[in-house]
Amino acid sequence: MSRQRFSAARFGSPASSIFNLLTMSTTVSYALDVFGGQRRAVESLGAQRDFQRYTVLAAYLTLTGNVVNTVVARAGYAAQIAATRQLIEIQQEQIAITATQVQAGIAAYASIVDLKAKLAALQATLAPLEQKHSQAEHLLSTLTGHAPGERTLAPVDLDEITLPADLPLSLPSKLVRQRPIYWRPKLLCMKTAPISASPRRSYYPALP
């Protein structure tokens, strides 16, 4: 916008009141994208955004899958520990009964030695199971955003973990298309499209 003062006396006309003349102007420019270079760049930016979004979604699905696997493994180790301790108690009771039979003269002492060897082997399997159970607890705490030992995790019974009653034999294609593994290769191609097209773009003139 520009402002000018105008007087008719300059052109030989009778003097009159001086007034201001205001003129307004604007400039509009548009970059022609005849060969599609800018359009490919915009598509690449959109693909980069979607690629990052599906990358985050893939990380979330991986995290939730690892949490479920760790919960099941922890419950399985706990069940094995409980079963092993129960077998140890049964083995100790059997040794006590056999010792009474040996004192009564109705069983050989070698049977006690054999039972004690089996008991020692059974007790040796308990420590590795407890170590694996502790490792699963620490991993579960880390996956849920807590330091190992920061909080006490609630025990999970293996019998409480069940599959759904009705499992579909097939899945609709819409569910498959929601998975990141379906979209990431396509978005990666769109993301790198301007890089592969840049040598060809230089063959054509760039319009101002």
UniProtKB/TrEMBL annotation:
MF (Gene Ontology): efflux transmembrane transporter activity
Pfam assignment, any one: OEP
Superkingdom of the source species: Bacteria
InterPro entries registered for this protein in UniProt: MdtP/NodT-like, OMP_efflux
Family annotation (PANTHER family): BLR4455 PROTEIN (PTHR30203:SF33), OUTER MEMBRANE CATION EFFLUX PROTEIN (PTHR30203)
Record-stated family: Belongs to the outer membrane factor (OMF) (TC 1.B.17) family.
Entry protein name: TolC family protein
